[in-house]
Specification:
alpha+beta; two-stranded antiparallel sheet
Length: 185
């Protein structure tokens, strides 16, 4: 029987390097890399925790699933336009979601309406400079989405809700540009 002097795990034979020690090294390396990644997101526009909790108070429940905040659901910070898709790391790009809904949303651009749980809404105007509409998915057309009776979570997929957010934002931005053109005349 061999006992590693570093991690004190018992093995039948001597290993070089010890499996227990190498596992700890891998965990430490992963956590160090994750910390480094988090630091590089946006050092200027960091979100203060107090800013997020003040925003969270405006929501009585998860805007995606409608479950009330409680001890069952963990509250997570969700970026409306994900950082991976060029979204800013500031308070205007944040909405609170329960952890389950945040994992379901993944990297899709979905802004949930506070008043109607699970329903997608147009992006706030402050996020329009960061929003780049993706090319339309040939598998999902708006004609397939719009006739559906219930365009809410969980009946709609994340791709469908993203398409709804995109179409509502495009309509709002076109309406805004028409208003600007009318005011110039």
């Amino acid at each position: 029987m061999y006992r590693c002097p570093s991690c004190w795990q018992d093995f039948l034979t001597r290993f070089e390097p010890c499996p227990g020690c190498s596992e700890q090294v891998v965990k430490q390396t992963r956590s160090r890399r994750a910390r480094e990644r988090r630091r590089t997101y946006d050092p200027i526009g960091q979100i203060e925790s107090s800013e997020f909790w003040n925003l969270w108070r405006l929501y009585s429940a998860c805007p995606c699933c409608g479950d009330a905040w409680g001890q069952k659901s963990m509250i997570s910070l969700d970026h409306i336009i994900p950082l991976a898709r060029g979204g800013p790391n500031n308070g205007e790009n944040v909405q609170p979601l329960c952890q389950r809904c945040n994992l379901w949303k993944s990297i899709h651009i979905i802004y949930f309406d506070r008043a109607f749980k699970g329903q997608a809404a147009a992006l706030p105007q402050i996020l329009w400079p960061y929003w780049q509409p993706q090319p339309a998915d040939p598998q999902i057309s708006l004609m397939e989405i719009l006739p559906n009776v219930d365009l809410r979570y969980p009946q709609a997929t994340a791709q469908q809700l993203e398409a709804i957010t995109t179409s509502l934002t495009q309509k709002a931005s076109k309406g805004r540009s028409l208003e600007c053109d009318d005011s110039r005349r």
